[in-house]
Amino acid sequence: MTAVGIDAIEIWTGKLKLDLPETFAPVKDEDPEKYTKGLGLYASSFPDSYEDIVTMGANAAHRLMERKGLTPDDIGRIDVATESAFDNSKPVSTYIAGCLEQVYDGDFHHANKGERKFACIAGTQSLDDAYNWIKAGRNRGRSALVIATDTALYARGDPGEATQGAGAVAMLISEDPSIVELSTEQGYGSADETDFLKPNQQFPSVDGKRSMQVYLARMREALEDFERAGGETHPGDYVFGPYHTPFPGMVRKAGLFAFRHTIRDTDIEEELAAEIGRQPREDDYDDREAFEEAIRGYMDDLKATDQYQEWYANTIDPTLRISREVGNWYTGSVHIARASALQYAAENDMEMTGKKLLVGSYGSGAQAEIHAETVQEGWEEELDQLSIDEQIRNRHDLTYEEYEQVHDRHNHDKRVELEDFTEPENEFVFVGRGDMDERTYEYVE
Ligand code: COA
Q1: Strand partners, 361
Q2: Distance 51 CA to ligand 1 centre (A)
Q3: Are 162 and 35 in contact (CB under 8 A)?
Q4: Contact status, residue 320 vs residue 195, Cβ threshold 8 Å
Q5: pLDDT by residue (tens digit) across 429-442?
Q6: Is 209 in the pocket of ligand 1 (CB under 6 A)?
Q7: In 223-242, which positions are buried (b, 16+ CB within 10 angstroms) versus exposed (e)?
Q8: Which of 64, 316, 331, 417 is most exposed by smallest CB count within 10 Å?
């Protein structure tokens, strides 16, 4: 069976930065550690005036195509995952293809284009679509371009305002991939939930605390489904666990739940039993309340063990390095978590070929998906080409007043003009609107 998976990745961050402990916390009159320690976030990325979901996605895709020496003929699908779309009919992928056609000879007329929507999980669903298309033998030797692009803005004053972010991840899905092969086994946890939604509005209606509970509940269902599908979940089987990262503090919670679940009935649970006892089993309790209290006690003890702390430091913490600096990228978040972990592995000369990742995606509304990925031989060379650290360093550091202007500039209802903070170079930029209110783009040298 031919391996199918991610052959190349490019990441593009919005060029502006809001420093959360230094700039945001003082104005909100809050302790900076709420952000750095509580949410686990240091900064959010924002798009400059000439940037949006199309430019960020097109710029990531362009860089990917250039680096891999691809032409439009090599691409048979362009799927864009986003929850920041500005049009209910015309997909963002057509805009991105239009941008790319400005700089390539040839066109994408024979590429199937679409737009996937299911909150933050849509990026992973687009990977699935590409995987299935190739596995079905419909790709005629071509690859798929999957682009997860979002500007995650919340209404000013919403608790979610601290977790904003903007950026795009472009991924090339091919046969015999260079970075990871996706597993056939996958598990789903999906239910009709009202935790976060945008009923024809730009800024989300969100029940933040509820969304955190739903994240955990659906992830657990997906993990059980993955196990039913034959997937392995022993912590020793996986080097990294990239999860959807709305903010690192969410993943810290998810990590503890995942560890508890996956050590049950394993050698690790037995080893820990002398120190903290075995995990409470529901059958041993008369009522649910008593069982839940026992679980909470076990979780507190588990969190303090060396085994858990070591697992978290090695398996989960390396996935959060980019996210801490850029905030929530919605559909792209789980994909920057994977890249962050592999970058860490490259920096630490870890031998990764053949090793596995357990990837957990989530989208509000709500659905979680779990699958495994096997790292392929060319991973290190691919990861070495990423420029995200440099991009993060080069962002313009906004004052609070500038942040307010930028938020207004990207508010679809306001149409505010604002001077650029940075100078575009060799990239696609937003230039205005046409007669039918379509957005127009140019490539600037
Ligand atoms: N030092 C250390 N930690 C601190 C702190 C301080 N000075 N002040 C607060 N914290 C901790 C809190 O204890 C909390 O951690 P905990 O949940 O482990 O207890 C964390 O920082 C956040 O503080 P909280 O008061 O809960 O923040 P909030 O009420 O402003 O809202 C969210 C947090 C996540 C609900 C909000 O940002 C949100 O709505 N986000 C959007 C929705 C989202 O991303 N959902 C995730 C699932 S997709």
Answers
A1: 369
A2: 29
A3: yes
A4: no
A5: 999 999 999 999 99
A6: yes
A7: bebbbeeebebebeebbbbb
A8: 417
pLDDT, tens digit (0-9, with 9 covering 90-100), for 291-339:
999 999 999 999 999 999 999 999 999 999 999 999 999 999 999 999 9
Q: Scanning the structure block, which residue is given the tokens 């996986």?
A: 238
Strand (E) or helix (H) holding 267: helix 267-276
Burial (CB < 10 A; 0-12, 13-18, 19+), residue 210, is middle
> Which domains are assigned to the chain?
4-444 (3.40.47.10)
Closest residue CA from atom 35 of ligand 1: 208
For residues 294 and 302, the answer to whether their CB atoms sit within 8 Å is no
Cα of 394 vs centre of ligand 1, distance in Å, is: 28
How many Cβ atoms are within 10 Å of 320's Cβ, its own excluded?
A: 25
Cβ of residue 21 lying under 6 Å from some atom of ligand 1: no
pTM: 0.97
Residue 423 annotated as catalytic: no
Indicate if ligand 1 lies below 6 Å from the C-beta of 159.
yes
Q: How far apart are CA 181 and CA 373, in angstroms?
A: 5
pLDDT digit string, tens, across residues 106-137: 999 999 999 999 999 999 999 999 999 999 99
Residue 259 has pLDDT above 90, yes or no: yes
Q: Which residue's alpha carbon is at the smallest distance from atom 25 of ligand 1?
A: 34
Ligand 1 site, residue 160, Cβ cutoff 6 A: yes
Give backbone dihedrals phi and psi of 441, rounded to 5 degrees, phi first: -135, 150
**Ligand 1 atom at minimum distance from 244 CA:** 48
What are residue 227's phi and psi, to 5 degrees?
A: -65, -40
Mutate to test the pocket of ligand 1, among 24, 28, 36, 39 (most ligand atoms within 8 A of CB): 39
Answer yes or no: 62 catalytic: no
Closest CA to 81 of 156, 168, 8: 168
364 lines ligand 1 (CB under 6 A): yes
- Note the Cα 315 to chain centre separation in Å: 17
At 1 the pLDDT is: 76
Which candidate, 61, 66, 80, 71, places its Cα nearest to that of 9? 61
- Copy the structure tokens of residue 276: 């903290």
**Ligand 1 nearest atom to the CA of residue 161, by list position:** 37
